[in-house]
Amino acid sequence: MQIGVSLGLSVSSTSALSRILAIYASGAKGLMMPDFGDFSKLFQNSAGTTPVTAVDDFVGRALDISGNGLNLFRATSSARPQLKYDDGVYNLTCDGIDDGLGIAASAGVFAAASAAFALVKTDGLIGETICFSYAGEYFGSFGGGNSSAAASNLCGSNSYYAVNGVVVPGGGTTTRAQLAAAIPVGQWCVVEARNLNMSAWASLTFGYFSALYPKPPKLGASPIVISETTEDNATLIRRYLAQKAGITL
Amino acid sequence: MNESIRTIFFSAAAAEAVREISSVLDKDALSGLFVTPLEATAAPGPISHYVSSGPLPDWYISLLTAPEDFYDASKAAYEAEGRAFQYTLAQIGVLLSQCEMHDGTAFEETPHAWLAQRGLQLGVGLL
Q1: Smallest CA–CA separation between A230 and chain B, in Å?
Q2: SS (H, E, C) A27-74
Q3: Residue of A1, B33, B51, B56 with fewest CB within 10 Å of its CB?
Q4: Which helix (H) or strand (E) holds A234?
Q5: Euclidean distance between CA atoms A132 and A74, whole angstroms
Q6: Global pTM?
Q7: Which residues of A touch B (CB under 8 A)?
């Protein structure tokens, strides 16, 4: 199955990936998770010795394809997310108890001005959720009716969210309710967070954060964290992820 | 390594010891277990239990239901590290008696549903 997926990439998708990787090659910080349909980049164990071979396998290691070596892993056996296939998109699904994947690095691996792009799908929120976190900091937090910030105070004043390329109201103080209102339930969508100050982030975790945020969304395609970039590059990344879910932007 | 999906919780009183022993049994795969807090649905607030859910090694699952085997394996693991194992078989029996385990198959929803059946919900002890 994974071979078919890899070979099934369209020329334009392959070209877009090459162009995105070129941004990293030119010095951009951050990471790019593999397309979760590319099983050659996924492993069941954190040591990376047992490859993922099928949907429903648990994922203990996902290789960073950016060239920056920020591979994601989870050693704890029970806390690995599961590879799923949903509505045409391979994705990581967490159980909402303890699952997650993360990197262990040091401060400086992310830029002071970073942008994050992720293809996500929520099947209906149980309270709130958080997409990415580090030591109590976070971004991509959303939940109906909550007026708290959708990202922690590491966000710069010129930061903002966009969903499928449409800017979410609120700018640098977008609330969780505003972000939740912009994210369609039951549909894949590209969520981006721009101008994040991640200079202090020494790691990054996707998945379980705390009991107040019980069920992270499904994470599909190739989530990206990259030094804040040009609008042309942002459009390239956004469309690359959207194409994975058949979304036309 | 063969694995099976389980949802397992221990009482808060037992969880710390089981967490520590498990991390010696396998410092990678079994480190970080039982860190997600639970509270009673009817009386939220105090953390009553800690839970893990997902694939676990079959040998470990078997140990949790066999105090003597758990004791022997744990003692051997500690001694392999040059450490004394400070629990008696009776104490291990008490620890494991505070464990409840669910054979989850419908992975995504079963842990929460089962916990709800047990009168428990995710707690906020880590906040």
Answers
A1: 37
A2: CCCEEECCCCCCHHHEECCCCCCCECCCCCCECCEECCCCCCCCCEEC
A3: A1
A4: helix A231-244
A5: 15
A6: 0.89
A7: 45-47, 58, 75-80, 82, 93, 95-99, 126, 208, 210-212, 214
A168's tokens: 């979410």
This model of the complex carries an ipTM of 0.86
Say if residues A220 and A91 touch (Cβ distance below 8 Å): yes
User: How far does B42 lie from chain A, in Å, by closest CA?
Assistant: 17
Count CB atoms within 10 A of the CB of residue B31.
18
- In A, minimum Cα distance to B106 occurs at A95
Chain A interface mutation, best of B6, B25, B48, B108, highest count of A Cβ atoms under 10 Å: B108
Q: Residue B71 is which amino acid?
A: Y
Whether B70 and B91 have beta carbons less than 8 Å apart is answered as no
Residue from B114, B8, B1 nearest A58 by CA: B1
Per-residue pLDDT of chain A (249 residues; tens, 9 = 90+): 444 344 444 547 779 999 999 999 999 999 999 999 999 999 999 999 999 999 999 999 999 999 999 999 999 999 999 999 999 999 999 988 889 999 988 889 999 999 999 999 998 766 667 788 888 788 888 887 788 888 886 666 788 999 999 999 998 889 989 999 999 999 999 999 999 989 889 888 888 776 667 678 899 999 999 999 999 999 999 999 999 999 998
Nearest CA distance, A204 vs chain B (angstrom): 17
In Å, how far are A178, A182, A232, A238, B30 from A247, measured between CA atoms?
22, 16, 18, 10, 40
Give the A:B interface size as CB pairs under 8 Å: 82
Q: Using CA coordinates, name the residue in chain A closest to B3.
A: A77
